[in-house]
Structure formats: structure tokens, C-alpha cells
């Protein structure tokens, strides 16, 4: 492998780094790519934009050699190629930065980077040489990482730099980045975009997959929009707008009730306009007079490793308001939600819900008090995949009337309830007996939302309610959450997507290292201010 | 004799991020120092008996460490091998039978190692190739070995020659305390000691060792950089079987000198405990094997001397009681994390 990686360096500049011409790829009867053509030239960033299921990943997998196209031609460095595996693509200088990092957590940065193409001495790893080469690369491209740290100890942004270095170590001239900003803070995102820009200055070409329009407008040179496996638009940021791109992506005008797609690339406008919209129908002034539904005081909780994750946190949510918790993942949001819902033991502090002490309550007690919970990991905690849609629709209440009587489940009631949920919440499923696993991500999430909303609840805890689902489903779920708020439910929204927090919240609580470091008004705060707070900056200006 | 020879080794052995001296390390070094002092004291007090106990310790440890190394290569690659017991038994049987029929101990060892390799390959075929549940695959080996060796067991057959005899390593054998125990041993014991050191370096420093760790921690990541996960797992589990095969040959041709029914006596399972105790490193496993071997040798010596005026069965409990206490105490050291992909079949997409 080491030899292969060294031989592919060619210094003559190709005209086209990577291209697909007329790519068609079918999976059974599904056409994932239908006559798709894209072209990447040296020093440019090509953004592939589309909803989940639009065919972005399939296209990239074809270009990277993971799938063989049914028709069409892949071109790498001006040459028509047949790729039988990713190794063919890697050997030709195509690198992939995977969405789920392909790193071995307990191994050091250097070892991860050289793995598979190790410099050797008598079968042993030449550690000194490996380290030197990694350091040289890091210096050349401005990607700073501690070469000796174990990958699992690094923050996500640094792990991503290791992924990029891994590709560059293999002499990648093309980087394919699959949703690279999904896990980053706004500042880390800006830094990544700078890094990518720096790479293009050295002749590297980048394919950037995303559904975030703001990033596309800020970073891309060329934009290709995919929908239902077809190219529906090829443009550049100068010739288009976020609203136009959104419409291309979805195939109709999108109303997210926050106009997040009309905001400028700087994001200042987005914060202002998003918060202005909800205030039209639910005057925030009134919220102050509403009773406090969720009252958290001095709450402490530890994470799975016994480290303090929630640290004397105090927060109140009133009836009829959405409080959004903004923060970089891993700052205690998960533990906070689990401590409120009874899934995690609180080390100290109190939680009261609707004036009842819910500290130390078990999950079922919390449910019965009137709390709906949309958990952050729908596959793990939201649904039981092998159970039917019907059974999943009553997971929180199957033991109560009318779904159970005398210890026996009443199938007819459960099924009719499930049909209601499926109809009301637009869950696309052949029937209610299908296993929940067979649904798409968006439909799974709508099923969970439907289940949690169909009871009388005073408090809704929504953790990452729209993670990884398409815009149509996002729009739907956002609307439902707003409706619920308008009916007087208190909502605690926890999301790693700052856009989501800004679009939905009446108040934004910024969480950093287990504490709420500031509470800001989404109408006046800017993305930059909130981003700084999320990164741990002192809250002087923004705290209001 | 403690695990880990430097920060780099410790980092690679799964304790990544550990800087300087962790509590585990302090404890194991302190334990080693106390142990050495005790042994020295006993040696000064009664040289002959101490030498006998130490010899017994090394004898018991050799089999355990061979099994533990077989287990750790598999587990580092992501494959649980609970079939070591069966691998021991089957290769002890073939080693004994071939040595008896051919009159050559060496051919017996070759047969034992080959049997281990074949059983390793069978485990790989089941758990890597067919993606069978790994616990079931290992159990299959154990049951098959017990059944086959019992069926073909020939009560009348004897080795027909002396088992492997000790070889003195010149002046080293005259060293006090460890001279006889380590340097006046039969050949397979020396071979096992060499293998411990070689495998330790290979696992923690070589390209092969690093790739093995990668396929056990994150096979998907290994595959994206061009490592053939399935192939490497096949090779590793098969070759590891050779180590268990050597253990079987050692048991029949060097330790005991004959074959009896179910003669592995659960030591294939004890080898797994030794492996975990040794944090999946060969040197660590050897330290753990010496410890388990020591308790076995000690109770043997107690019984021989009638040291305690209580029934022999109670004295015989010593190794197991100590094992329970030590394993419970080991919980205080903090658990070592298993390889992340341990037990999970890998499927090529």
C-alpha cells in the first residue's frame, strides 16, 4: 500500500479532476441516480445539494468506487476509469472524508493516518518517519492536531482534521466530504470552510455534500442540486439565492415559518426573521405571566464515565413557550434530558414538573405526570425497531386504558389508535403492522412525534427532533411543535442545529460544560454571539 | 514481568491516552516487588521447596500463556475464541498419537500444531466466513474435541519413550532462585517463552499488530484504507490456533507424557481469564499465567508436605479461592475495555 500511495503523484495538472457522465444506478426497482452528470475542476469546491434520498450519497459512492454504475462513465484526472473498489479510487488520488469518521478510537493520530499505508522497517512501523510525514502534512495544509493523542480523546473538529489528513497522506487530489459540518459548531464550521479553501489554493478539488444552504452559498464555487436521483439544477452562488436553492431541492416552495432560507450568508438576518415570525401569533410578552411548568434548580448529573456532565444547572420553562437549548454536542445536553425524564440518576438538585417534585422519578412516572419525550436517538430510544408501527404508537401508554384492560392488550384499540396517528402525522407506511424498522428516518420521527403528542401533555422534551430527516418532514415536525406551544404546552428543545434552535425558540439557553451560560433572545442575538457562547466565551454582551 | 515496556507500548495496548504511571501500573509494579521479596525470603528459608514450587509455577504457566496468546490474537482481531479448551484437547490427542506411532516427539509436536491450525481454521470458517455466533462456534470446537478424542481414545497406547526432558542452559541454570525454574526446562517451555516476547513486540509494534488492532476496534475504518478484514481475521484466528496446538502438544508430550480423557481439564477456559487479566498483551498474560500457576504449584506442594492438618480437598481449593479474591480485587483496578468490534461478525458491503 505504501508503494502504491507514493507512485500516483503526478504533477501535471489535469483539466477535470473527477467527473461522472450520465451516471445511472438502480437498486432493484429504485432508480437512485438517473443520468447524473457532474464535473469537478482543480481548485474548486463543488457542492452537491439535496434532501436525504435525493441520490447524493449514491452518486458519491459511484465516484468513489463503492458502487458500480449501471450506466455512465466515471472520469478521474481526465481518464475514463472503471472502479472496482474504493482502493482504485484512492490509488488515483480520490479521498473521502466520511460522515461517520473512519477512525480507530483508541489508536493515536499518527497511527490512524498511516494505517494501511505504513512506513515500515523490517515489518515494524517506522514510527519516527510516520510522525514526521504526518507533521509535514499538517504544517503544509494548516491542519493542526496533536500527533500522539488518542483519537478518542480529541474533539470532533480535530477528529475531522485527522480524517482529512488521512486522505491527504494518501496524496488525494480530490476530497469528497460527506456532510462534514453536521457535527461542528458554527466556529468549527467556519474553520473547516477556511481549511477547504486553503486546500483548493493548492490545487485540490473538493466535493462537498450538504443540505445546509448557508454553507453552500458561503463556500461553493459550483452547485449541483439533486432531487429524486436527477440533477435539477446546476448553478453558482452568484447566480442563485437560498430560497431558490431550497425550492429546487424540495420541488416546491418551502415554508419553514421562519424563512430561514431567505437570510443572508452572514446569518444575522436569519436570527432576526426567524424569531419575528412566531411572535406574530404567540406574543412572548404573555409568556411571562404563564405558570412555570418545568423548573430545574441546581441539577447535577454525571455522564456514563462518571464525569460531571450537568453542573448545578438551573432553568425554567413556562407554559406556552419554547426554550431552546443551544450547545455543541457533548456539553451535557444528553445527560440533562435524561435526568429530567428519569433515564439518568441526578446527583443533586431538583426537577419539578407542573409543581410536582419529579426529582428521582422513574421514566414511567414522568410520562404519567404529562411529559412527552422525543429522544435524541430514535433508533435506540425512540422506537423498538422489530415491533410494529401499532405497538410503537402506544409504547408510552400501552399499560393504560383504553389500550389495556385486566393485564391484556386490546389490539383493536391499539390498531385504531395507530391508524389515527399514521393519518394525523402523515407517517408513510404500508400498514400499521409493518415493523418500525421498515420506515424511513423522517417517518420514524413522525411516528414518535405522533405518539408523544397524542396524549395530554404539559411538557414536551424534544431532543434533536429533526436530526437527519428531510426538509419536508422537518417542516412538518416544526409546525406541530409550534402548534403544541400555541396550545399552551411548555417545550424544552435541545438541538445541535443552531438554525433549528433559532427558528423555533422563544428563548435560547446556551449550554456549555454542563451549565446554562446565557439566556438570549433569538430576535436580537446573532449567530456569531451564540456561537461564541457555545464555544465557552464569556457572556457579557449577549447575556440579556 | 509486568505488562508494558514504555509509553508507546502502553498506548497501543488499549490504554491510549495514558500518560506516566496509572494506578494499575503502580499496583502491578508494587505487587511484583512484594512478590520478588517474598520469593527471595522463602528461597533463603527453604531453597529446595521454593525451587520446586517455582518449577511447578512455570510448568503450569506455559500451557496457560499459550492458550492466552491464542485467545488474544483472536480477540484483538474481533473474534472471541472460547474453543481453546477443545483446541488443547484435540491437539494433545493427535500429538500423543503421532508421537506414539512414529516414535518421534518432534513429529508429535508438528501434528499437534497442525491440529491447532486446522481447528483455528474451522473456528475462522464458522465465525468469520459463515458469521456464526462466535460463542456457538467455540462451543462446537469444544464438544467436537471431547467427543472425538474420547471415541478414538486407546487406553492401551503409551508414548513408548520418555517425554521431553529438561535442558540446562549452561551457567544460567546455576542462578539462584530462578535458575532451575526458568533455565533448566524442557524445550517447548523455552519455545513458549520466546514466543511470548516475539508476539508481544509484533502485536504492539509491527504493521501486522496495528492492523490487527484496527480490525478488532473498527473493521469498517480498516476496510476503507484497504485492509482486507475478512482475510486478516481468517489468518489471525487460524495462526492463533497453532499456538493452542503447541499448548496441546506441550500438555501431552512435555508436561504429562501421555494422553488421558479430557486432560485439558478446563485450562483452556482459565487461559481466557489469564488473557483478560494480562490485558491482552503477551507479557501481561505471562505475568498472569505465572500467578495462576503459582497458586496451583503451591497447593500441590502443601498437599505433598501435609503442611495443613486439614483434608486435601480443602487445600486443593487454594488456587480457586485465590482466583476469586484476585479477580474481585482486580475490579478495583478498573475494567479494561474490550476491542470495540469484539464478537461482531464483519460483513463486506
Description:
The complex is a heterodimer of chains A (544) and B (349). Chain A is built from 20 helices and 24 strands. Chain A has 544 residues and is an alpha/beta fold. Chain A folds into 2 domains: 2-254, 3-Layer(aba) Sandwich (Rossmann fold); 274-386 and 449-534, P-loop containing nucleotide triphosphate hydrolases (Rossmann fold, 3-Layer(aba) Sandwich). The longest helix of chain A is centred in the middle third of the chain and has 16 residues, at 186-201. Chain A is globular, with a radius of gyration of 25 Å. Chain B has 349 residues and is mainly α. Chain B has a single domain, classed as ABC transporter involved in vitamin B12 uptake, BtuC. Chain B contains 15 helices and 2 strands. The longest helix of chain B has 30 residues, at 47-76.
Strand content of chain B: under 5%
Unreliable spans of chain B are: 1-18
Q: Globular, elongated, flat, extended or rod-shaped: what is the shape of chain A?
A: globular
Arithmetic mean pLDDT of chain B: 86
Shape of chain B: globular
CATH top level class name of chain B: Mainly Alpha
Summing up helix and strand content along with how strands pair, one would put the structural category of chain A as alpha/beta
Overall number of structural domains of chain B: 1
- Total beta-strand segments of chain B: 2
Strand order, sheet with most strands of chain B: 1-2
Calculate Rg of chain A over CA atoms: 25 Å
CATH fold-level name of the largest domain in chain A:
Rossmann fold
Radius of gyration from the alpha-carbon trace of chain B, in angstroms: 20 Å
Count of DSSP-assigned helices of chain B? 15
Amino acid at each position: 500500500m505504501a508503494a502504491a500511495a507514493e507512485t500516483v503523484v503526478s504533477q501535471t495538472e489535469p483539466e477535470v479532476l473527477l467527473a461522472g457522465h450520465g451516471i445511472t444506478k438502480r437498486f432493484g426497482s429504485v432508480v437512485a441516480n438517473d443520468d447524473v452528470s457532474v464535473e469537478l475542476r482543480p481548485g474548486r469546491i463543488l457542492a452537491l445539494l439535496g434532501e436525504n434520498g435525493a441520490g447524493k450519497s449514491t452518486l458519491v459512492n459511484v465516484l468513489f468506487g463503492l458502487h458500480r454504475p449501471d450506466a455512465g462513465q466515471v472520469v478521474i484526472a481526465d481518464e475514463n476509469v472503471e472502479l472496482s473498489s474504493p482502493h482504485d479510487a484512492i490509488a488515483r488520488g480520490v479521498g473521502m472524508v466520511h460522515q461517520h469518521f473512519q477512525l480507530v478510537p483508541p489508536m493515536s493520530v499518527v497511527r490512524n493516518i498511516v494505517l494501511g499505508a505504513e512506513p515500515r522497517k523490517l515489518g515494524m512501523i517506522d514510527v519516527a518517519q510516520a510522525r514526521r510525514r504526518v507533521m509535514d502534512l499538517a504544517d503544509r495544509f494548516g491542519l493542526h492536531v496533536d500527533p500522539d493523542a488518542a483519537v478518542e480523546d480529541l474533539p470532533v473538529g480535530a477528529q475531522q482534521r485527522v480524517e482529512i489528513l488521512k486522505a491527504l497522506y494518501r496524496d488525494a487530489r480530490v476530497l469528497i466530504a460527506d456532510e462534514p459540518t453536521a457535527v461542528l459548531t458554527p466556529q468549527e464550521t467556519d474553520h473547516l470552510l477556511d481549511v477547504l479553501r486553503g486546500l483548493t489554493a493548492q490545487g485540490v478539488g473538493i466535493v462537498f455534500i450538504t443540505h445546509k444552504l448557508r454553507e453552500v452559498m458561503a463556500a461553493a464555487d459550483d452547485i449541483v442540486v439533486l432531487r429524486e436521483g436527477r440533477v435539477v439544477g446546476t448553478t453558482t452562488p452568484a447566480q442563485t439565492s437560498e430560497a431558490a436553492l431550497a425550492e429546487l431541492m424540495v420541488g416546491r416552495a418551502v415554508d419553514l415559518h421562519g424563512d430561514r432560507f431567505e437570510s443572508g450568508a452572514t446569518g444575522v438576518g436569519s436570527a432576526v426573521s426567524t424569531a419575528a415570525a412566531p411572535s406574530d401569533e404567540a406574543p412572548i410578552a404573555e409568556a411571562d405571566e404563564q405558570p412555570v411548568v418545568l423548573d430545574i434548580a441546581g441539577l447535577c448529573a454525571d455522564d456514563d464515565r462518571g464525569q460531571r456532565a450537568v453542573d448545578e444547572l438551573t432553568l425554567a420553562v413556562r407554559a406556552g413557550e419554547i426554550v431552546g437549548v443551544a450547545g455543541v454536542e457533548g456539553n451535557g445536553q444528553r445527560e440533562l434530558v435524561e435526568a429530567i425524564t428519569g433515564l439518568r440518576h441526578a446527583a443533586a438538585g431538583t426537577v419539578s414538573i407542573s409543581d410536582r417534585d419529579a426529582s428521582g422519578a422513574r421514566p414511567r412516572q414522568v410520562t404519567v405526570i404529562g411529559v412527552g419525550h422525543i429522544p435524541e436517538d430514535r433508533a435506540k430510544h425512540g422506537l423498538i425497531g422489530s415491533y410494529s408501527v401499532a405497538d410503537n404508537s402506544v409504547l408510552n401508554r400501552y399499560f393504560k386504558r383504553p389500550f389495556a384492560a385486566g393485564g391484556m392488550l386490546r389490539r383493536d384499540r391499539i390498531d385504531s389508535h395507530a391508524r389515527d396517528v399514521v393519518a394525523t402525522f402523515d407517517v408513510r407506511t404500508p400498514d400499521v403492522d409493518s415493523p418500525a424498522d421498515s420506515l424511513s428516518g423522517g417517518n420514524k420521527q413522525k411516528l414518535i412525534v405522533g405518539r408523544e403528542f397524542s396524549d395530554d401533555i404539559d411538557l414536551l422534551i424534544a431532543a434533536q427532533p429533526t436530526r437527519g430527516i428531510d426538509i419536508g418532514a422537518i417542516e412538518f415536525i416544526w409546525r406541530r411543535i409550534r402548534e403544541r406551544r400555541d396550545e399552551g404546552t411548555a417545550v424544552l428543545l435541545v438541538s445541535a442545529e443552531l438554525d433549528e434552535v433559532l427558528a423555533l425558540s422563544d428563548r435560547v439557553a446556551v449550554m456549555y460544560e454542563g451549565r446554562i451560560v446565557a439566556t438570549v433572545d433569538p430576535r436580537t442575538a446573532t449567530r456569531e454571539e451564540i456561537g461564541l457562547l457555545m464555544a465557552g466565551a464569556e457572556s457579557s454582551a449577549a447575556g440579556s | 514481568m509486568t505488562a508494558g515496556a514504555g509509553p508507546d507500548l502502553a498506548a497501543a495496548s488499549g490504554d491510549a491516552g495514558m500518560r506516566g504511571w496509572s494506578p494499575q501500573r503502580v499496583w502491578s509494579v508494587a505487587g511484583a516487588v512484594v512478590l520478588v521479596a517474598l520469593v527471595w525470603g522463602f528461597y533463603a528459608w527453604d531453597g529446595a521447596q521454593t525451587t520446586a514450587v517455582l518449577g511447578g509455577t512455570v510448568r503450569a504457566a506455559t500451557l496457560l500463556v499459550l492458550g492466552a496468546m491464542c485467545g488474544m490474537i483472536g480477540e484483538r482481531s474481533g473474534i472471541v475464541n472460547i474453543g481453546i479448551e477443545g483446541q488443547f484437547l484435540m491437539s494433545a490427542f493427535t500429538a500423543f498419537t503421532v508421537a506414539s506411532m512414529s516414535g518421534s516427539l518432534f513429529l508429535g509436536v508438528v501434528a499437534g500444531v497442525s491440529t491447532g491450525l486446522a481447528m483455528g481454521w474451522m473456528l475462522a470458517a464458522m465465525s468469520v466466513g459463515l458469521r456464526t455466533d462466535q460463542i456457538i462456534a467455540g462451543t462446537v470446537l469444544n464438544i467436537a474435541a471431547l467427543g472425538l478424542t474420547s471415541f478414538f481414545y486407546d487406553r492401551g497406547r503409551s508414548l513408548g519413550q520418555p517425554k521431553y526432558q529438561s535442558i540446562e542452559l549452561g551457567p544460567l541454570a546455576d542462578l539462584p532462585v530462578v535458575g532451575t525454574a526458568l533455565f533448566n526446562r524442557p524445550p517447548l517451555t523455552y519455545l513458549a517463552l520466546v514466543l511470548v516476547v516475539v508476539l508481544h513486540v509484533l502485536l504492539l509494534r509491527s504493521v501486522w499488530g496495528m492492523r490487527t488492532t484496527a480490525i478488532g476496534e473498527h473493521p469498517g475504518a480498516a476496510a476503507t484504507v484497504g485492509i482486507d478484514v475478512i482475510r486478516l481475521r481468517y489468518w489471525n484466528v487460524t495462526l492463533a490456533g497453532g499456538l493452542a496446538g503447541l499448548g496441546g502438544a506441550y500438555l501431552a508430550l512435555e508436561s504429562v507424557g501421555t494422553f488421558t480423557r479430557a486432560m485439558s481439564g478446563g485450562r483452556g477456559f482459565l487461559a481466557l481469564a489469564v488473557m483478560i487479566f494480562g490485558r491482552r498483551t503477551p507479557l501481561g498474560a505471562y505475568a498472569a499465567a505465572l500467578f495462576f500457576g503459582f497458586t496451583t504449584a503451591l497447593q500441590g506442594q502443601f498437599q505433598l508436605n501435609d503442611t495443613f492438618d486439614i483434608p486435601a480437598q480443602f487445600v486443593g481449593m487454594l488456587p480457586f479461592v485465590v482466583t476469586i479474591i484476585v479477580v474481585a480485587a482486580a475490579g478495583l483496578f478498573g475494567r479494561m475495555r474490550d476491542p470495540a468490534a469484539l464478537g461482531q461478525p464483519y460483513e463486506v458491503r
